[in-house]
Amino acid sequence: MAISSAGIGSGLDVAGIVSGLMQVERQPLIAVAKQKSAFEAKVSAFGTMKSALSTFQTAISTLSDSAKFNAQAVTSGDAKVFTATANGKATNGDYNVTVSQLAKSQKLSMAGLPNVTDVIGTGTLTISFGTFTPATTTPAAPASFAANAAKTDITIDINSANNTLAGVRDAINAANGSVSATIVNDGSSNRLVITSKDTGEVNSLKITVADADGDSLDASGLSQLAFDPLATSGSGKNMTQLQGAQNALLDIDGIAISKASNTITDAIEGVTLNLLTVSGGNSVALGIATDKDKIKESVKGFVDAYNKLDDTLRNLTKYDESGKSSGVLLGDATARSVISQVKAVTTKSIASGNSINSLTQIGVSFQNTGKLALNETKLTTAIDSNFNDLAALFTTTAKSSDALVSYAGATGKTQAGTYAVNVSQLGSSTVDAAGTINGVSATGLLTRLTGATGDASEGLSIKVLGGALGDRGTVTFTRGYAAQLDSLISGLLKDDGILAARTDGMKSSISRLDKQTEALNVRLASVEARYRAQFTKLDSVMSSMQTTSAFLTQQIKALSANNN
Q1: How far is CA 51 from CA 56, 149, 456, in A?
Q2: What are the Cα distances from residue 300, in Å, to 211, 293, 376, 390?
Q3: pLDDT (tens digit per residue) in 131-157
Q4: Under a CB-based contact definition with an 8 Å cutoff, are residues 129 and 147 in contact?
Q5: Which residues pair with 179 in a beta bridge?
Q6: CA 215, 219, 220 angle in degrees (round to 5)?
Q7: What confidence category does residue 1 fall into, taking pLDDT thresholds of 50, 70 and 90?
Q8: Residue 242: how many CB atoms within 10 A of its CB?
Q9: Pairwise CA distance, residues 324 & 322, whole Å
Q10: Quick check: 280 and 274 in contact, CB under 8 A?
């Protein structure tokens, strides 16, 4: 009978021999797996690095913008009358505020109906917004309604599907415009109330009707909703005014102010007032001051954030003599480049032209461990004595030598430096300014001049608020530590930055190794099949030889016995 299982006939350990040979054959596959594992570990490590850089960038964001860095504390003498906040650009000082009237939105009501399912009528409603001015006798002037150019009319179709009291309410609300509608039950009837969503006289309502019954002015059908403030009651002015639109009226240090909203952002530059109630003829104190504690907190946050980043970068690149705890990115050129770039920003001086130009001057210094430490006493002294210089140490700022030339903004392409300003034409609301920045023709827009494209001053925007023509001194543009680090990290993290390039390169290598692994596995399967076939055949031959040997031995023994 033929032998079908390797090793059964000859006793040859075919499985063991093939397994041993395949261990040797698999060495290239093991080497590829190790390479892939190393690349995957580095991809993960760079992911950790990018996450740490992003977290650091978020932490220093409050320090990179001058308005956020120059934190201000605002106090209200009576928080029941108003509250206030400042954005860092307000002028510190004290103000007296008197609130005599709050802004309100207009409310109109239709005559009551017994049921919300009662039919009103069909047609088209057109709701307009504007300012109603009543007639005056001295001087003599008729009443008028001036449309609000900032808002478009709302047109609502009322048909048999929505012509009930509830249907009209829902149709108005479904228009999602600057009005809302509700139904109020007064105990005996249901009244439709239409309210302007926005306060102020400029948001008064005018409702015109195209009534399907042919009469758009009477008090029947859909015309019941007509409200023309210039018309007469019952003839186009059919709804009842429950509350008139009015502006907020207040007085700040003797200056009378009228605003459409109770949230006022443009009365005092950099300050938002939230009016809550009238002050009863009494003035309420408003105080604006530098929030020193908030600034200290921000600087401390910068130190803590840097140290956390330092911990992560050190763990990824550290050297361990035993080799067991070395960082995954030990010796990696890209990792070294990131660390050196971050360190270079924090150790250099800021050329702002101010008395404070380094972190050590405000109590922030590097320790032997490579971490930052904060001397709060030194920081407090710097805030008290050189607060204006402190902002330039961290944020993007500019300082002009001419009081009538002010910094208005910059772009990411604006380089730090001191730039000469020359004005050949003053700007106004009708004329664009003209002149040069850094000796290169600038772009003029009203009172602004902006640095030319391709020049170091590109994107630098300044306002020229008057003065003589000709040379107007210099503007020194500075990017502080937080601003520079923010820009650096944005570059490192962008899609075509060095971290993305390094990661993409390793991912390509992993993909290449996956293909190599696939090819090796195909080759190993073929090699193993060949080995098994060869040794199975050898086993069969050896088994046949053993059978022949046994037969010959038996025959020899038989011949020997016969001879005896």
Answers
A1: 9, 48, 32
A2: 68, 10, 9, 14
A3: 999 999 888 999 999 999 999 999 999
A4: yes
A5: 196
A6: 70
A7: very low
A8: 14
A9: 5
A10: no
